[in-house]
Amino acid sequence: MKTKTVFVVLIIIFLILASAAVFLLLQDGLNNPSLGAAGNTFSWISGIYVSPVGNDSSACTRAEPCQTFGKVISIAQPGDVIHILEGDYPEPFTISKSGTAQNYISIVGHNAVLNGMVISGDYIVVSSVEVTGSISHGIKVEGKHVIVEDSSIHQSVTENGRIFCNNSGSWGSALKVMVGGEDIIFRRNSVYENCGEGIAVTQGVRTLIEDNVVRDNFSVNIYIDNSPFTTVQGNTVLCTGIYLRDERRPTGIAVAEETYPGWGAQRHDTNILNNLVDGCYDGIASWNPEEPQGMEINLVVKDNTITNGTRRSISLEWFNINVLIADNKVYTPIHVVNPEGVMLVNNSVR
């Protein structure tokens, strides 16, 4: 009898500990953006829900979802998970509300198709959404501490056409950091066949672009424009010839310095690491600046593989300070217009 009692007590203790562990995992998933917005099983336990067939008079629960983005955003608080349920959403998703450093607002798609997203709030995580058909930018980020991950942005920037792209509109981007964007992460996204740039950072500060697949965009696939402290690493960048702008394929990864009022020359501290680039016009390029006195400062291009293309593997077109090009596998010799300030180390042509 005593043995049975001890066994029952042990079972009760085990259940208590297991419940506590699940609670801690749930809290960690909601508070840690690397866990809370990854579409994991815990994300279904609580949150705010929106569906194209919902009703804004409902409780915004999974059983009774709301219908519009405006409604769910109006009630969202730091730490909440906004679930976008399956379906097509004609309205863009625009969020200016912010989470906190301890409690991000998470936005998770569940087979949801959006026609655009604008994020001007801070401490936001977006995961597993699909964006297509947007007029200009697919997902535009203007806030701080924002993560966009595991999402798909394709056939957007329709101001330059649909399927057949042209130069008629402005240069929107499928996935974009705009001025005001700081401490941004784009990771594990699929960005393809957009009639503009693929992933672009313009006047952003401290952006990490990692482990994305970026393919066949009409303009540059990954474009870093006058944006300091940017790292582009572990991405797969492909140009198969589907879209030709001015009769040529896009550049794979480009660093530039366009002019913006009040911004000045801030192209510095850029890292381009361990990317695979295939089939593009230039694989990796540093372009001439528009900004007066602009130049390439503190650039590292390392451990990249550029298998083939239609012009150059790596091209530096302007003056440089502290540039390292090392350990890259390329298909053409590295092109450097002004070698002063540039170190070429252990690169191999094959």
Q: Would you give an account of this structure?
A:
This protein has 350 residues and is mostly beta strands. The protein has a single domain (2-349), classed as Single-stranded right-handed beta-helix, Pectin lyase-like (Pectate Lyase C-like, 3 Solenoid). The chain contains three helices and 35 strands. The strands form five sheets. Strands 1-2-5-8-11-16-19-22-25-28-31-34 form a twelve-stranded parallel beta sheet, covered by helices on one side. Strands 4-7-10-15-18-21-24-27-30-33 form a ten-stranded parallel beta sheet. A nine-stranded parallel beta sheet has the order 3-6-9-12-17-20-23-26-29, with no helix packed on it. A hairpin with a 1-residue loop joins strand 13 (161-162) and strand 14 (164-165). The longest helix has 30 residues, at 2-31.
The total of helices stands at 3
Strands, total number:
35
Rg measurement, Å: 23 Å
Provide the residue-averaged pLDDT.
Answer: 88
The CATH topology: Pectate Lyase C-like
Let me know the CATH homologous superfamily. Single-stranded right-handed beta-helix, Pectin lyase-like
> Class in CATH?
Mainly Beta
Q: Give the low-confidence spans.
A: 1-44
Draw up the topology in text.
Blueprint: H1 2-31, H2 33-36, E1 48-50, H3 69-75, E2 81-84, E3 87-89, E4 93-95, E5 105-109, E6 112-114, E7 117-119, E8 124-127, E9 130-132, E10 139-141, E11 144-149, E12 152-154, E13 161-162, E14 164-165, E15 173-177, E16 182-187, E17 190-192, E18 197-202, E19 205-210, E20 213-215, E21 222-225, E22 230-233, E23 236-238, E24 253-256, E25 268-273, E26 276-278, E27 280-286, E28 296-302, E29 305-306, E30 309-316, E31 320-326, E32 329-330, E33 335-336, E34 342-345, E35 348-349
